[in-house]
UniProtKB/TrEMBL annotation:
It comes from Moorella mulderi DSM 14980. InterPro entries: Amidase_6 (IPR024301). This is Putative amidase domain protein. Pfam families: Amidase_6 (PF12671). Signal peptide: none annotated. Residues 208-374 form the Putative amidase domain.
Length: 382
């Protein structure tokens, strides 16, 4: 009997020891996992919080662009660093610019839609970063038109955002992007007046240039999600945005692609194997090539007041002699820095353009520019 009891006791102790060793092994397995899982979960939660804050900030900024109220924006920026203060002032400047432009052009912005895509984002130790693509569509009509009249203009911006977490909230410390409503300062200087036009305008000059195909191409590949199939660049061409800008590359495509204007290229103005010639990719070189080659003529070069002034030659202003498929170039400080393509008119006959860098779709031709801008009006005559 004593032997039996001893065996039972030993088995019990062995069982308990085995159980204890099993539990110890489980702890040794779980603890490293816990050390890996918990930080991962915390990081995932922080990234989710970061993305939610980005959506909130960009939504608020889009609303401010429409209503002109920027008073609450400071709460979303780290103004203790120069780059954060600059980002805030830039946003205030563009809101002031849009507000001033619509006042001078007698335009009423009635609403907006926003499409936001956070392409990539991350955070570590209270610092975050994100790559963000934002499409904004503004609904508008001109003063004197029925309120039910709706025109739409669209812009797309690609942002590189750096953030910092202070007092439990993510704040913008840096925001870099090409801005269609660029403002040099907080006091926009816009020439008063408007450039409305009657719907009766002279027909385009006869030629081989496929104007309607050029406009369709410009609408499809503007980069702005304004309608079905829009919102991309043509992947058959390289994007030169990070190499000085893509505006001339886009206009060159509109003029020459076989599915667009179909103007023949030559060795001076050409694109091959992912590379474009200087006349293809650089705005000023493209303008001078079009003029020197005889593919286009310059109707006028002047500021807003000059190109909209009525005359015997241009009863509705020189700018309104342009036709869909024609080109407007923008000169700043003596240099042509941008080109866009005319794509049509809005309900009041105001000329609309598309461009890359920054991306615009059916935006009034002078929106984003100020009193100092000199406009080159080019009519394609091929």
């Amino acid at each position: 009997m004593g032997l039996v009891v001893l065996v039972v006791v030993l088995r019990s102790r062995i069982f308990k020891l085995g159980l204890l060793l099993a539990l110890l092994g489980l702890v040794l397995i779980v603890m490293p996992l816990r050390q890996q899982v918990l930080p991962a979960l915390a990081a995932r939660s922080e990234q989710k919080e970061l993305k939610e804050q980005l959506h909130h900030i960009f939504t608020t900024r889009a609303q401010s662009l429409v209503n002109g109220n920027y008073e609450g924006l400071k709460a979303y920026y780290d103004t203790t660093v120069t780059s954060g203060l600059f980002a805030l002032n830039h946003e205030i400047g563009r809101i002031k610019y849009v507000r001033e432009w619509v006042k001078e052009r007698q335009v009423i912005v009635s609403g907006s839609q926003m499409d936001l895509a956070i392409i990539d984002a991350g955070s570590e130790e209270g610092k975050g970063w994100a790559s963000v693509s934002q499409h904004i569509i503004l609904n508008y009509h001109h003063q004197g038109e029925p309120e039910k009249t709706i025109n739409q203009m669209g812009v797309r911006t690609i942002h590189w955002v750096e953030l910092v977490k202070r007092d439990g909230q993510w704040l913008i410390a840096r925001d870099w992007y090409w801005d269609p409503f660029e403002a040099d300062n907080l006091d926009p200087d816009i020439t008063p007046g408007t450039a409305r036009c009657s719907r009766e305008v002279a027909p385009p000059p006869p030629g081989k240039y496929r104007r309607q195909a050029a406009v369709s191409y410009a609408d499809r590949y503007s980069g702005v999600r304004l309608g079905p199939g829009d919102g991309r660049y043509n992947q058959a061409y390289r994007d030169f945005t990070g190499l000085g800008g893509d505006c001339a590359n886009f206009v060159s495509q509109v003029l020459s692609d076989k599915n667009a204007g179909a103007i023949p290229r030559d060795w001076v103005w050409n694109y091959h194997n992912g590379n474009g010639s200087q006349a293809w990719v650089q705005a000023e070189a493209l303008v001078h090539y079009l003029l020197d080659s005889g593919l286009a003529v310059r109707i006028m070069r002047g500021n807003f007041e000059e190109v909209t002034r009525t005359s015997t030659t241009y009863p509705q202003g020189a700018v309104n002699a342009l036709q869909p498929g024609d080109i407007i170039a923008y000169e700043e400080k003596g240099e042509i820095s941008h080109v866009s393509v005319v794509v049509g008119r809005d309900s009041a006959g105001y000329l609309l353009v598309n461009s890359h860098t920054a991306d615009r779709a059916r935006v009034p031709w002078d929106m984003g520019w100020d009193r100092r801008t000199i406009y080159w009006l080019l009519q394609v005559v091929y």
